[in-house]
Design brief:
By secondary structure, this protein is mainly β. 6% of the residues lie in helices and 49% in strands. α2 links the parallel β1 and β2. The radius of gyration is 27 Å and the shape is elongated.
C-alpha cells in the first residue's frame, strides 16, 4: 500500500490555523480583545512609561493607561505609587477594579495614611477626576483627589468623584480648591440607582476663595444609596461664597451615616458678612429632601470655627423626607460662630424620629439672635431617650426654645432609658408646652 504524502503547503496551512486559534484565546483576557498584555495586577508610577507592560518592574505612567489592560474577565487591582497624577479617570468596565494609592518605590505603603494625589486636568460633561459608569464595580483606597473643573463656556463646575455604579471609597481625601466663580461644587456626586460606600477619610465640598452661585456639597446623593462610616465631611471652608452649603445632601435617596463628623461650614469662613466675602441662603450639616436618612453615633454641626452667618443655620434639615436620629451629638452652631438670625439643631418638615443623643441649638461660644433645639414646623416627630437644649453656653439675644411646633405636635415616648429630657422649653417657662405634647409607652 502506498503511503499518502502531505504537501508542505497543506502542513503549513494546518499550523497557521492552530496558531490563530491559540493567539485568539490568549487575547480574549484583556479589556481590549486584541491586547495580550491584560493583567490582574497593574502598577503605576510618576516615573513610569505608558509603553511599559504595567508590571512591578516596568510600571505605567498613568492610571488611564492602566485601565486599558485590565483583565476583562477577572478585573484588576491597580497599585499607584505616591506622587501627583493629572488623569481624568473614567471606568466603564463591569468587572471589579480596585485603585490603591500611597505606595513607595518598593511598592510598600510605609504608613497606613500615605496617599497618591490626583489633581489637575479639565473635566468633561460634568465629570470629576474619577468617574464610574452604570454597571461598574470600583474600590478606591488611599487617594487624595482634587476637583476637576468642567467649563461649559457659560458655567464652571467642580466635581471630585462622580459615581454611576457601585463604589467603595476607603481612606480617601477629597477637596475642591478653585479660585473664581463656579455654578456648583460637589466632593462626591452619587447618581440615581448607584451605591456609594465611604469608609474613613475627609471629604470637603469647596475651599479657598471661590464663589459658587448655587450649591456647595461635601456629598450629594441623588436618588442613590449612600453609606458613610468613620469619615469627616465638610461642606465649605475658608471664604467660600455660595447660595447653599451642606455637608451631606440626600435628595430622594437612602443614606445611612454612622460614626461620622459632619460640618456645614468651618475654618474662618465668613458667611454673609459686611465685607461680602461669603453669602448663603442656607447652611446645613445634613439636608434630606424627600429621601430617607438614618444617623447614628455622629457629631454634626452646621457652622463652627470663626464663622459669621446672616441667614439661618441647621445641623439637620429634614425637608419632606424621613430622618431617624439614633444617637450622637447635634449642634446648630459651635466655636465662635456669630449668627444674625436663628440657629436650629434640627428642623423637621417631614417624618422625624429621635431615639437618642443630645441636640442643641447654639452651643459653646457661639452667638445668635434666636436658638432652637428641635423645630417641628410642619411634620410629624417622635422623640425619646434624648436630651434637647435650646442652647448651652452660647449667647442668645432673643428667644430660646428647646422645642418649637407649628402644626402636628411632637410625641414624646417613654423608652427603656426613660423619657426625653427637655431643657429650656420656650425660654424660662418649663410648663408652657406640657399641654401640647403627649406621652406614650413604646
Amino acid at each position: 500500500m502506498k503511503s499518502k504524502n502531505r504537501s508542505p503547503f497543506f502542513i503549513a496551512l494546518i499550523l497557521f490555523f492552530i496558531m490563530v486559534t491559540f493567539v485568539g484565546c490568549e487575547a480574549g483576557a484583556g479589556e481590549d480583545k486584541n491586547d495580550s498584555n491584560a493583567r490582574t495586577e497593574i502598577y503605576v508610577s510618576t516615573t513610569g512609561n505608558d509603553n511599559s507592560d504595567g508590571s512591578m518592574e516596568q510600571p505605567l505612567k498613568s492610571i488611564s493607561k492602566a485601565l486599558t489592560i485590565v483583565d476583562s474577565s477577572k478585573g484588576a487591582t491597580i497599585y499607584v505609587a505616591s506622587g501627583t497624577y493629572s488623569d481624568i479617570v473614567t471606568i466603564t468596565a463591569t468587572v471589579p477594579i480596585t485603585i490603591k494609592g500611597g505606595y513607595n518605590t518598593s511598592w510598600i505603603r510605609s504608613n497606613k495614611d500615605d496617599k497618591s494625589t490626583i489633581d489637575g486636568g479639565e473635566g468633561k460633561d460634568h465629570d470629576g477626576h474619577i468617574n464610574t459608569k452604570e454597571g461598574s464595580k470600583v474600590t478606591l483606597e488611599n487617594l487624595d483627589i482634587k476637583g476637576a473643573i468642567y467649563d461649559s463656556g457659560v458655567y464652571k463646575y467642580a466635581y471630585g468623584v462622580k459615581n454611576s455604579g457601585d463604589m467603595t471609597v476607603d481612606n480617601c481625601d477629597i477637596i475642591m480648591v478653585e479660585s473664581g466663580t463656579l455654578l456648583s461644587v460637589f466632593g462626591f456626586h452619587n447618581d440615581a440607582n448607584s451605591r456609594l460606600s465611604i469608609i474613613g477619610g475627609t471629604i470637603t465640598g469647596a475651599a479657598g476663595d471661590s464663589e459658587v452661585t448655587t450649591n456647595v456639597c461635601g456629598i450629594y446623593n441623588y436618588y442613590g444609596t449612600l453609606i458613610v462610616s468613620g469619615a469627616a465631611i465638610r461642606g465649605a471652608v475658608d471664604n467660600v461664597t455660595a447660595n447653599s452649603i451642606s455637608g451631606i445632601s440626600n435628595f430622594s435617596g437612602t443614606a445611612t451615616i454612622v460614626d461620622t463628623t459632619i460640618v456645614g461650614t468651618t475654618d474662618n469662613t465668613t458667611v454673609g458678612s459686611a465685607t461680602g466675602n461669603t453669602s448663603v441662603i442656607s447652611i446645613d450639616g445634613v439636608y434630606t429632601s424627600g429621601g430617607t436618612t438614618t444617623i447614628s453615633g455622629c457629631t454634626i454641626t452646621a457652622a463652627t470655627g470663626d464663622t459669621a452667618v446672616v441667614t439661618n443655620v441647621s445641623s439637620i434639615y429634614n425637608h419632606y423626607g424621613t430622618t431617624t436620629i439614633k444617637s450622637g451629638t447635634i449642634a446648630g452652631s459651635a466655636g465662635t460662630t456669630t449668627v444674625s438670625n436663628k440657629v436650629y439643631g434640627v428642623i423637621n418638615n417631614g417624618t422625624l424620629s429621635i431615639e437618642g443623643g443630645t441636640i442643641v441649638g447654639a452651643s459653646e461660644s457661639s452667638s445668635a439672635k434666636d436658638s432652637c433645639g428641635v423645630s417641628n414646623s410642619q411634620g410629624t416627630a417622635i422623640i425619646s431617650n434624648c436630651t434637647i437644649y435650646g442652647k448651652t453656653t452660647a449667647t442668645v439675644t432673643s428667644t430660646i426654645e428647646a422645642l418649637f411646633k407649628n402644626g402636628t405636635a411632637p410625641k414624646f415616648i417613654k423608652g427603656d432609658a426613660g423619657p426625653a429630657v427637655i431643657q429650656e422649653v420656650k425660654g424660662t417657662d418649663p410648663n408652657l408646652w406640657t399641654t401640647d405634647f403627649t406621652w406614650d409607652t413604646p
